[in-house]
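Q&A log
Question type: sequence-to-structure
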Amino acid sequence: MNHKQLSITADQALPDRLDEIIPSEPHAVNGSLLSKEVPAGQSQILLGMGCFWGAERLFWKLDGVTSTSVGYSGGFTVNPTYRDVCSAQTGHTEVVQVVFDPARISLEEILTHFWQSHDPTQGMRQGNDKGTQYRSAIYYFDDDQKAAATASRDAYQAALNAEGKAEITTEIAPAGPYYFAETYHQQYLEKNPNGYCGIGGTGVCLPPWER
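Response status: OK
Response body:
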C-alpha cells in the first residue's frame, strides 16, 4: 500500500500553522461570500468524495444550494495548506462545504447525490487518486444529519450488496474544524473548465430510505 494511504495519529501530524487561509474572492459562480458562518435559516454539511474540484461543481449546480467552498477537515494540523494535506501528514481529507436552504432542497437529495456520484468503497483513495486526503467522508452538524447519513449509508450498502459490490468505507463523524483551501482551488472547474475531474460513481442507485 502507498504510504500516503496510511492513517496517522495526532502526534505524527505536521505542526500547526499560525496563518489561516481566507479566500480572497467571492464564489465564482453565484457571487456569494465564502464564509464559515451559515446564514440564518440555512444549513451546512461537509462532504468528502475524493478530489474536491469535481465534487464542488456537483453541488453548486443543485437548486437550493446557496453556496459551496472547498477545504480540509477531519484531521489534526491547524490551518493546513494544500501541500501539507497532500503529504498525508495532517490527517485531513478534501471536503466540500455545502450550504443549503432546507426549504428548497432536502438533506436526502444532497446525500443521494453524494452516494451516487463517487465510489464510497475504496478506502483511502478515489479512482487513481490515492491517499488519505481522498477518503470518503460525511461530517455532520447535528443528530438529524447523523441519522440521515447513517440511514442513507445503510440503504446504499444494501443496494451495493445486491450488485455484488464491496463494503462502504465512508467516515461518518461529527464536524470538526473546517479550513478553507487556497483561493485558486475554490470553484476550480468554473475557472478552469477543462481541468481535472476524477469524480465518478458506482453505477448503483440509492433506493428510497428513511431516517
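Response note: The two ends are 36 Å apart (CA to CA).
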